[in-house]
Amino acid sequence: MENWRQIATEEKNSNTEKIDTLTTLEMVRLINEEDKKVAVAVEAELEHIAAAIDIIAAQLRMGGRLIYSGCGTSGRLGVLDAAECPPTYSTDPNRVVGLIAGGKEAMFSAVEGAEDSEQLGAEDLKKIGFGSRDVLVGIAASGRTPYVIGAMKYARSCGAHVFGVTCSPGSEIEREAEIAITPTPGPEVVTGSTRMKSGTAQKMVLNMLSTGAMIKLGKVYGNLMVDVKPSNEKLIHRCQRIVSEAAHVSEEEATAVLEKCDYRPKTAIVMLLRKVGAEEAKELLERNEGKVSAAIGEV
Q: What's the pLDDT tens digit per position in 217-272?
């Protein structure tokens, strides 16, 4: 029988034992004090996060995919991170994928028992044709979720890179991972409520993994998201501002050039800075792995 008291995310927080007796302001101050510990916990894992980013970027460059596997809050965070990549970086929706135990229904309500099956974790990877070029990131605050462990074991059997994100040191997920990312922000404000500090820590890590990989793939120039997909009015205006700022031209000039290259900010920036047409700008980007800085000769 597993001793849940020994799992870091299930420990009782002595700092918050009287939280139900506090004023509302005292309560939120206490929550905020606990939240401050999250960034410090993530900082301790930066070397592991950086190593994972380098591998993810390399595999994506070779046509592989980044796949997240998780349950409950952890699974939802993986799905969220994956869902935000296409509009932010114009990635194919199938390049970064979030799998959650219980499927789409589990995004909005609990699917009882789904997380307790190792077989289900493996089957969900098989359904998407998971292979050796892909990267799996197993996410579980407790570090012991069978669904995630099953997915990690299957991914390893495929010869793929397998990483783990957990908030419980010494867990099975940590042992299964090629690279284990284990921020440990301490016991939750409400005992066992891992949507709080653990969830925040995991969100910070996933932000770094996907953003870092996209930067490595040339989807950022300076600190501008130059591969943004103009799928709504806000993002159309963002494209115009990005090109205007990057190429040091007016938004009217930026818009005119964007209209000549199907509203692709990277292409428009290269057109303006290298004073070339759309086709030549595309060729320059292709020869330089999609990196604007290299295409315009900055590096």
A: 999 999 999 999 888 999 999 999 999 999 999 999 999 999 999 999 999 999 99
CA nearest neighbour of 55 among 162, 139, 138, 141: 162
| pLDDT value for 105 | 87
pLDDT digits (tens, 9 = 90+) for 83-117: 999 999 999 999 999 999 999 888 888 776 778 89
Q: Report the 10 Å Cβ neighbour count for 240.
A: 22
Our measurement of the distance from residue 194's CA atom to the centroid of its chain's CA atoms, rounded to an integer in Å, reads: 18
Q: Indicate the pLDDT class of residue 1, thresholds 50, 70 and 90.
A: very low
Residues with active-site annotation: 84, 115
pLDDT of 4 above 60: no
Inform me whether the pLDDT recorded for 71 exceeds 80: yes
Helices (H), the chain: 24-43, 46-61, 72-89, 118-127, 146-157, 172-176, 197-216, 233-247, 251-258, 265-274, 278-287, 292-295
Rounded CA gap, 147 and 129, in Å? Answer: 17
Strand partners, 264: none
Q: How many CB atoms lie within 10 A of CB 31?
A: 15
- First-to-last alpha carbon distance for the chain, in angstroms, is 58
- The number of angstroms, rounded, from the C-alpha of 161 to the middle of its chain's C-alpha atoms is 16
Q: How many CA atoms lie within 13 A of 182 on its CB side?
A: 18
Q: Residue 296 and residue 254: Cα distance in Å, rounded? A: 17
With tokens 């994972």, the residue in question is 52
**b/e code 216-227 from CB counts within 10 Å (16+ = b):** bbbbbbeebbbb
Please tell me what DSSP assigns to residue 187: S
- Which of 294, 297, 278 has its CA nearest to residue 218? 294
Torsion angle of C-alpha atoms 184, 100, 104, 82, degrees rounded to 10 = 70
